[in-house]
Amino acid sequence: MAQDGPKIDDDAPVPGVAPYDGPAGGWGALRGVAVAIKDQMGASADTRALLQMNQPDGFDCPGCAWPDPRHTSSFEFCENGAKAVTWEATPKRVDPDFFASHSVSDLWDWSDHRLEDAGRLTQPLRYDPATDHYTPIGWDEAMARIGAGLNALDHADRAEFYCSGRASNEAAFLYQLFARAFGTNNFPDCSNMCHEATSVGLAKSIGLGKGSVTLEDFDHADAIFCIGHNPGTNHPRMLSTLAAAAKRGAPIIVANPMRERGLERFKSPQHPTEMLAPGATRLASAYHQVRVGGDLPMVQGIMKALFAADAADLAADGAGLIDRTFIAEHTVGYEALRAEVEAQDWAALEQGSGLTRAAMESMAQVYAKARNVIICYGMGITQHRHGTQNVQQIANLLLLRGNFGRPGAGICPLRGHSNVQGDRTVGITEAPGEDMLARLDARFGITSPRKHGHNAVDALAAMASGEARALIALGGNLAVAMPDPQACFAAFRKLDLAVHILTKFNRSCLLPARETIILPCLGRTELDMQAGGPQWVTVEDSMSMVHASRGRLKPASDDLKSEPAIVAAMAKATLPASPIDWDGLVADYDRIRDGIAAVYPDFHDFNQRVRVPGGFRLTVGPSQRHWPTPDGKAHLLTAGDAPAQDDRLMLATIRSHDQYNTTIYGLNDRYRGITGRRDILFMNAADMDRLGIAHGDRVDVVAAPDRILAGQTAIRHDIAAGSVAAYYPEANGLLPLDAHDRQSGTPAYKTIPVDIRPAA
Ligand SMILES: Nc1nc2c(c(=O)[nH]1)N[C@H]1C(S)=C(S)[C@@H](COP(=O)(O)OP(=O)(O)OC[C@H]3O[C@@H](n4cnc5c(=O)[nH]c(N)nc54)[C@H](O)[C@@H]3O)O[C@H]1N2
Ligand SMILES: Nc1nc2c(c(=O)[nH]1)N[C@H]1C(S)=C(S)[C@@H](COP(=O)(O)OP(=O)(O)OC[C@H]3O[C@@H](n4cnc5c(=O)[nH]c(N)nc54)[C@H](O)[C@@H]3O)O[C@H]1N2
Ligand SMILES: [Mo]
């Protein structure tokens, strides 16, 4: 029977560390919401916003990209969605007094939590190097300075246009139009740090870098695999879906180095009867603690066992376990894949994955027994040097039994930001196709650059070398989100122009360029009033559903603008001779949507179709067994070189339950038993014993002589041997900028070889 928490009873107590025995969800989640409301909204909380979340006529929750059930109007409760919303709808403000009393140097010493907790931005700001303070500036002057700064560049490619994944389709589309009209395809994007391995990997294997399943498919799956993601914290609404599958007896197979409560047990805060009953729904039917970075050999092991079972079945006059009709009709590459997998040696697969052969065989058995299988995965798969190969081996496993294009089967990458997928769909890409550019040019009368631009790693490298001189950031906290703060912070400080379009002040704003401007924008929850009346926006979830989002709250200040309005104002100030009617587009977002439809045929009749409650689904070829690859086939792809074995411990950076990426809501990580602190290094008991480290010892985590995360508290945790984990972003200094997946550029945030030694 699975053990439910770290076994630390024999150890001396460590402050803020105690096993968490409850299920995911449950009363703890309800208390979490109450705390978020009290901390952020105060006693006179206006909680109406929470009730409009994910309603057909409300706003899309900015918390994650998990889809909404299509045909319910009941309130979908989610603790972390509530945190995201209260964080945005808080009455706290950073106003001119705040910036008059705190210099940039003072604020540098504030924690990331304290910086954002100070409240919402209220007006445009400009950094004054003479006083080291931000001071208010009017919108017109801000725009004039941005226009002048961009026009002072000797080439458009010296500007980087970063996009974080909360921007709506409308904002993102205008943003790429502006950057391309200006003359560059430099689009570093948060997706580059996240699911780029999916975009690149799946595009080559099934022809489309997106998931193939819908939410309804989960009702028909005979088995679900959850590899490298932590839904209890990062996609809490997914737990209802998993619980429903578990209740009807579908096995849920987990592969994760850490025992995550949200994959083990769940009590739905949605159901009063469940809340009052003892116990909880058990989720994982089997939990395999793969070692950090061990997924590629694990999936190869599952395939090896499948091929062996297939051969045995054929020998016994069975029909075999491989879907040969599907393979013949729909795929290429079968023989090469089978040869590569069969050539693997079990001892190496066991060592690489940290799992026994029997464990991998049991996974293969569940996989082969189920008619329809969904495999879900997250950052535990993508954020590795072999992220693209990891993704492709998962696709291989599914293809071998034809698990695409029928109900209850398919691949399910769990996207991060609520519109990260949509932003890419509507043009935020450094490598645009010719068709799209031609249609963009025809519609808007511009000549887009054809030269491909920078992704996030390229952009930071260009900023560090001095090649890039300007950065415009539509949301996010790029300097903190990227690896290698040593290099990234310096790169930011070298810029001539930095513009941050944000709801909240963050550390990236504390790295001033020669000219630094902060533009405060409306958030998802707020009413967006333009010349043509109230506007709404659209987003695309993880399952390619496009739907509307309508904010209704009074904006945090009268001096905020919407993201589309800000982008249009920057464009007008930078490109006074532009043929584009920027004001017209912003007056009525239907016109932006008509533009999207003109450039992307899949958005035909966009304005009509998105007005249907629940929206519509974009074309996902692989869901219909249509493979938009050059040869029209799905590709079984070999992995090539295996991840290099490293005798050192492998560190993964992870999110706590109280954080949203670089936004730190609080210092607890409830499901992992951590309260009030983040200086934790999660370790395996055997590793600690071997290294002579006791529970609660202060240690330094050493990736290289100049890459040390000092003064962490090592704790015994239920994590795979050879693996350690620490929180992001604190641990980002351990990772150099060039440690990334060669094919997709995704930073290897979850394969950082380290040594642990007593704190200096
Ligand atoms: N509340 C909240 N919600 C969020 C976010 C947030 O920060 N807070 N972030 C959003 C974003 S942008 C994203 S991308 C998603 C992220 O959602 P997830 O993909 O769940 O992200 P992580 O917390 O980074 O890592 C998830 C899991 O990967 C496991 N893991 C680490 N290394 C490995 C490995 O080598 N192999 C395997 N199999 N597993 C491994 C960890 O133990 C952890 O359970 O969530 C989104 N939703
Ligand atoms: N070590 C390590 N590093 C990682 C990761 C990891 O797992 N480990 N994960 C990576 C991943 S998956 C991602 S996606 C990136 C995230 O990278 P980013 O997307 O750049 O970072 P966020 O922390 O999500 O951005 C937070 C800021 O967004 C602003 N914001 C919030 N809402 C809005 C809005 O509606 N509009 C605008 N304009 N601004 C808004 C707020 O001002 C806030 O300060 O980090 C990556 N970095
Ligand atoms: Mo992400």
Bound molecules: ligand MGD, molybdenum atom
Q: Per CATH, which architecture of the domain at 93-191 and 419-612? A: 3-Layer(aba) Sandwich
**What is the 3D shape?**
globular
The residue ranges in which pLDDT falls below 50 over 5 or more consecutive positions are 1-8
Identify the quaternary structure here: single chain
Instruction: State the end-to-end distance.
Output: 40 Å
The CATH topology of the domain at 93-191 and 419-612? Rossmann fold
Q: Give the C-alpha Rg.
A: 25 Å
Total of helices: 29
Blueprint (SSEs and pairs):
Blueprint (H helix, E strand, L loop, with lengths): L23 E2 H16 L6 H4 L27 H11 L3 E2 L1 H6 L2 H5 L3 H6 L2 E2 L3 E4 L4 E4 L2 H13 L7 E5 L5 H14 L13 H11 L16 E5 L3 H4 L3 H10 L4 E4 L9 E3 L4 H5 L4 E2 L3 E3 L6 H21 L8 H7 E2 L1 H9 L3 H8 L3 H13 L3 E5 L1 H4 L4 H14 L9 E4 L6 H6 L8 H11 L11 H10 L4 E5 L3 H4 L3 H9 L3 E6 L12 E6 L7 E3 L2 E3 L1 E4 L4 E5 L13 H12 L7 H6 L1 H11 L6 H4 L6 E2 L16 E2 L13 E6 L4 E2 L2 E2 L15 E4 L1 H7 L6 E7 L2 E10 L6 E5 L24 E7 L2
Parallel strand pairs: 1-9, 2-3, 6-15, 7-8, 7-13, 8-11, 12-23, 13-14, 15-16, 16-17, 24-30, 27-29
Antiparallel strand pairs: 4-5, 4-17, 9-10, 18-19, 20-21, 21-22, 24-31, 25-26, 27-30, 28-29, 28-31
The structure holds ligand MGD (2 copies) and molybdenum atom (MO).
